[in-house]
Design goal:
The chain has about 350 residues and is α+β, with helices and mostly antiparallel strands. It folds into two domains: about 140 residues, 3-Layer(aba) Sandwich (Beta-lactamase), CATH 3.40.710; about 150 residues, DD-peptidase/beta-lactamase superfamily (Beta-lactamase). Helices cover about 30% and strands about 20% of the residues. It has eleven helices and 14 strands. The protein has an eight-stranded antiparallel beta sheet with strand order 4-3-14-13-12-11-10-9, sandwiched between helices. Strands 1-2 form a two-stranded antiparallel ribbon. A hairpin with a 5-residue loop joins strand 1 and strand 2. Helix 1 packs antiparallel against helix 11 and helix 2 runs parallel beside helix 7.
Length: about 350
């Protein structure tokens, strides 16, 4: 397969050439062995793609079950990592003062709930780290939430289960509030702002995704991207927010986003930052964006790796075991194989 070159045009009269050699063209004369990885992936009926870059070079690109490089995927909650990036950019551009702002400053005119005065202490940071204290709108409450007449109001009127900033409770309602907040702060829809400051800077355009009844683009779910677009976004988090010499996301925001801010209550080895998960895989610290059904952008800094997997996002009885199989594919096969080729040790 011939190498493909991506030209990312910026607002300046220069062009950055982002070249990703296709699988089979081993960059830097490193002999990668992906035979077992590919054979294992081919046994997974829900997988759609597997891409890996090392130092910005595409060292593995495989598509499965009838998909190709042009196939877009509903990236599900990987969208939360994009919403986080947009918050960081909005702060840098002075649309938002800082992450410690109480969200009541943006939603005081939204029929602010009076059931608990402590809700006024919820901050932007609490939403980013899934520590708002509000009862989740995910899982058991998801259907009632998205069928409600006002998604923002529904989230704000959820009971305050714990004090803000104390315990992680994963909830798409938190990131939907961030989308509404971005719209208020920037004067643009989240879709417009995402394209203006992020996607277009990376050389592509995000298609519109679903909106709530008030026209707020769904915060943290249902964006669509190709695997290559996901890979380029992941490269930003490997390269301190830069593509070439262009700073897209503030470098401090990247650092802050990838710090352990909260601990998962379901898996005590897993942590959460600003829209990103953290976990040790194959003996290496990894950061990853994770979406329902097996959508992943995985960054392994010590190996200078970015890994993307996409899968069927449709519900089904084998969805949970598939996600577990993706973890095993990465941790037991892919990362150790690359680590060995690069001369690192995987535990």
């Amino acid at each position: 397969m011939a190498a493909r070159t991506f030209i990312l045009s910026f607002l300046f009269p220069i062009y950055f050439i982002f070249q990703l050699p296709s699988y089979g063209q081993q960059p830097s004369r490193i002999n990668y062995d992906f035979e077992t990885v590919i054979e294992t992936a081919e046994t997974l009926p829900r997988i759609r793609s597997l891409l890996v870059s090392q130092k910005g070079e595409l060292i593995l690109e495989k598509y499965f079950n009838g998909t190709n490089s042009y196939s877009t995927t509903n990236i599900k909650s990987v969208s939360k990592s994009i919403i986080s990036a947009l918050i960081g950019i909005a702060i840098e551009q002075n649309h938002i003062t800082d992450i410690n702002q109480p969200i009541i400053e943006y939603f005081h005119d939204e029929n602010w709930p009076t059931d608990n005065a402590l809700k006024s202490e919820i901050t932007i940071k609490n939403l980013l780290t899934m520590q708002s204290g509000l009862e989740t709108t995910s899982n058991r409450n998801y259907g009632n939430w998205i069928s409600s007449e006002n998604w923002v109001s529904f989230v704000l009127h959820q009971p305050l289960d714990v004090l803000p900033g104390r315990i992680m409770e994963y909830s798409s309602g938190n990131t939907h509030l961030l989308s509404a907040l971005l719209t208020k702060a920037t004067g643009l829809t989240t879709h417009e702002f995402a394209n203006d400051v992020l996607a277009n800077e990376l050389g592509f355009t995000l298609k519109p995704w679903p909106k709530d009844p008030q026209g707020i683009f769904f915060g943290g779910n249902d964006m669509e991207m190709t695997p290559e677009q996901m890979l380029i976004f992941g490269e930003l988090y490997l390269n301190n927010g830069k593509i070439g010499n262009k700073q897209i996301i503030p470098s401090k925001w990247i650092d802050d986003s990838l710090e352990h801010k909260a601990q998962s209550r379901r898996d005590r080895t897993r942590y959460y930052g600003y829209g990103w998960w953290m976990k040790e895989m194959a003996g290496h610290e990894t950061y990853y964006a994770w979406g329902f059904g097996g959508q992943f952008i995985v960054v392994v800094p010590i190996l200078e790796l970015v890994i993307v997997t996409t899968s069927s996002s449709n519900p089904g009885p084998k969805r949970r075991i598939h996600t577990s199989n993706i973890y095993d594919l990465l941790e037991l096969h892919l990362i150790p194989s690359i680590s060995k080729s690069l001369g690192h040790t995987s535990l």
